[in-house]
Amino acid sequence: MSQQQHHPTPAQIRAGRALLDWSQQELAGHSGIGRRTVAAYENGGNRVMPTSVVAMKEALERAGIRFSGEDEPEGVHRVPASREIPDRDVR
């Protein structure tokens, strides 16, 4: 089993936002990153820092999104959120 964290694909990030009906700006606000970074990753940008991808993933997971992949078919689904989503400062 790999110790490396699985990063969601750009399509999974877009799908997670769609399930929550979030704009790119809303995801950016919850992730503490800029909207351009969200857009760049969703458009397949390979120059997005891994820490930004992790921030997007964690924000979506706090809102109840779960990602699958790596050892199982790639997918995205929504589960009930366990708590309110604290906003992070947008850089």
Alpha carbon gap, first and last residue: 35 Å
Taking all Cα atoms into account, the compactness measure Rg is 12 Å
Envelope shape: globular
Strand content: 5-15%
Write the element-wise H/E pattern from the N-terminal end onward: HHHHEE
User: So how many helices?
Assistant: 4
Range of helix content: 40-55%
Let me know the number of strands: 2
In the predicted model, the low-confidence regions spanning at least 5 consecutive residues are none
Mean of pLDDT: 85
Structural class: mainly alpha
Strand order of the largest sheet: 1-2
- What is the makeup of the main sheet? 2 strands, antiparallel
Would you mind describing this structure in some detail?
With 91 residues, the protein is mainly alpha-helical. Helix content is 44%, strand content 9%. The chain contains four helices and two strands, in the order ααααββ. The protein has helices spanning 10-20, 24-31, 35-42, 50-62; strands at residues 65-68, 75-78. The protein has a two-stranded antiparallel sheet. The longest helix has 13 residues, at 50-62.
Brief account:
The chain is mainly alpha-helical and 91 residues long. It has four helices and two strands.
What's the helix and strand layout?
Elements: H1 10-20, H2 24-31, H3 35-42, H4 50-62, E1 65-68, E2 75-78
Antiparallel strand pairs: 1-2
Helix pairs in contact: 2-3, 2-4
